[in-house]
Recover the amino acids of this structure.
């Protein structure tokens, strides 16, 4: 979600305030049954539609298999970007406390702290993704 | 139509389901028939996420099997979401074979990773699959809308 927000410009810098992060669509709001569903985040400056999806720990298996299966059928112009390597332990712990245990007051500050720390790395991921698409 | 049978490692249940679909296995097949399957107990955890073509059925449909760890449900939602959002016109059916797995197949699958117990683990896994062939056949038929 954070990477998609950086990509479409919903986050203008890699040092956003907590309020800016909390106001992002879908931020810290997914339930288990939402995992796997595409969430439209916005359109980038080149007109490319950007989505996010939560794929849990099996993201790499899912992306590999979906990419293979869709290629078998037709040339789908979909670029899958695995953002899990950019996620740090602050975000994982905060997300678990907020979403799984339901303690938003404890979990969210951890997620936000971790998000701010992760943003420079996620911004690099966006840059490399955009370069690949050119 | 593309049929995708998936389970944890893509080594036992999904292989047997794909074989049932293709008519290579029958609901009353024995342990030896299961052990003879080309792909039975072949894929390792490193190969999870790679769809393998098991064959083409009598109606020309491609039949794949696949290991997805515990991500089967998320995979199904993601595929459905992509196909719907981008209007891909992609005709497919995913079938989760984990719901039929016998505990003994889980144990056998685990033992095959230990070199000294590989042969025993394979037989144990095959025996577990044999006990669930009728259930597997039901989900194979259901997946085909039969």
């Amino acid at each position: 979600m954070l990477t998609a927000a950086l990509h479409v410009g919903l986050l203008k810098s890699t040092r956003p305030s907590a309020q800016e992060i909390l106001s992002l669509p879908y931020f810290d709001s997914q339930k288990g049954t939402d995992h796997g569903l595409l969430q439209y985040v916005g359109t980038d400056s080149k007109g490319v539609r950007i989505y996010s999806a939560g794929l849990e720990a099996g993201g790499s298996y899912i992306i590999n298999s979906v990419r293979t299966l869709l290629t078998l059928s037709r040339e789908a112009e979909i670029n899958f970007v695995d953002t899990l390597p950019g996620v740090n332990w602050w975000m994982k712990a905060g997300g678990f406390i907020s979403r799984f245990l339901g303690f938003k007051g404890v979990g969210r500050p951890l997620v936000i702290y971790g998000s701010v720390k992760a943003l420079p790395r996620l911004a690099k991921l966006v840059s490399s993704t955009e370069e690949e698409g050119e | 139509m593309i049929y995708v049978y998936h389970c944890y490692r893509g080594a036992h249940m999904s292989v047997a389901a794909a074989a049932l679909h293709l008519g290579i296995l029958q609901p009353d097949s024995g342990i030896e028939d299961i052990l003879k399957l080309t792909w039975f107990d072949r894929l390792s955890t490193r190969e999870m996420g790679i769809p393998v073509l098991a064959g083409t059925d009598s109606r020309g449909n491609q039949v794949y099997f696949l290991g997805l760890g515990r991500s089967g449900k998320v995979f199904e939602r993601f595929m459905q979401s992509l196909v719907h959002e981008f209007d891909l016109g992609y005709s497919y059916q995913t079938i989760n074979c984990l719901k039929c797995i016998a505990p003994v197949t889980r144990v056998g699958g685990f033992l095959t990773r230990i070199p000294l117990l590989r042969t025993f683990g394979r037989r144990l896994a095959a025996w577990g699959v044999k006990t669930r062939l009728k259930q597997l056949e039901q989900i194979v038929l259901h997946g085909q809308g039969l």
